[in-house]
Design goal:
The protein has six helices and seven strands; from the N terminus they run αββββαααβββαα. The chain is an alpha+beta fold and 193 residues long. The protein has one domain. Strands 1, 2, 3, 4 and 5 form a five-stranded mixed β-sheet that branches. A two-stranded antiparallel ribbon has the order 6-7. Strand 6 and strand 7 form a beta hairpin. The longest helix has 23 residues, at 3-25. The relative contact order is 0.17.
């Protein structure tokens, strides 16, 4: 194996790992079933069949501006995805799968050991990442369940999970960093109504 190949492989893995930390620290999360399969591409998502939910839409999203603006959760922009794909070779299905496998096995606080998973020859590949290489919260929402509070529809958003607890299991409640954002005021308040 040539040294250039080893260096290139490590550089890509390290860059992707740093992007993963940046996404997590920026409150980016994965919404499972927040959009219909038919509307998935329009939401910059991908349809995957990864668990008992069957084929559903997965999107990378961030908190919106709140209920006052009827903007609770926003899919990441097309420009942002261009950077992820073109600059860092991040494969969206692999990112989602890695995060979901991690959460299923270890909850929201899962970890991985980079010394055994990104060494060339270890099986690391940008389209087949080890569990916990990316560890974004995967939130189990349902766009078909019409949940409202006041005059705001919270279906398919993290607001739908606002009252969940750890007893409900990872994915069915908000991790602390998102619970600080998706408060009752953020999710439900509409001035003048």
């Amino acid at each position: 194996m040539a040294c250039d190949n080893v260096a290139s492989g490590l550089k890509t893995a390290i860059q992707q790992s740093l992007v993963g930390y940046m996404l997590a620290s920026s409150n980016v999360y994965i919404i499972q079933n927040g959009h219909s399969v038919d509307n998935c591409a329009g939401s910059r998502g991908t349809v995957l069949n990864l668990d008992q939910a069957g084929s559903v839409c997965y999107t990378l999203e961030r908190p919106g501006s709140g209920s006052y603006y009827e903007d609770l959760s926003d899919p990441l922009s097309a420009d942002f995805f261009d950077v992820l794909y073109n600059s860092y070779s991040i494969n969206l299905p692999a990112l989602i799968s890695s995060s979901l496998q991690c959460q299923t096995a270890q909850g929201y606080n899962g970890t991985y050991n980079p010394s055994t998973s990104i060494i060339p020859g270890s099986g690391y590949a940008i389209d087949n990442l080890p569990p916990c290489f990316f560890n974004l919260p995967v939130l189990y929402t349902d766009y078909t369940v019409k949940t409202t509070g006041e005059l705001v529809t919270t279906s398919g958003t993290p607001c739908q999970l606002r009252e969940g607890t750890e007893d409900d299991g990872a994915g069915n409640y908000l991790p602390p960093s998102l619970a600080k954002v998706f408060t009752a005021h953020f999710c439900l308040y509409k001035p003048g109504h």
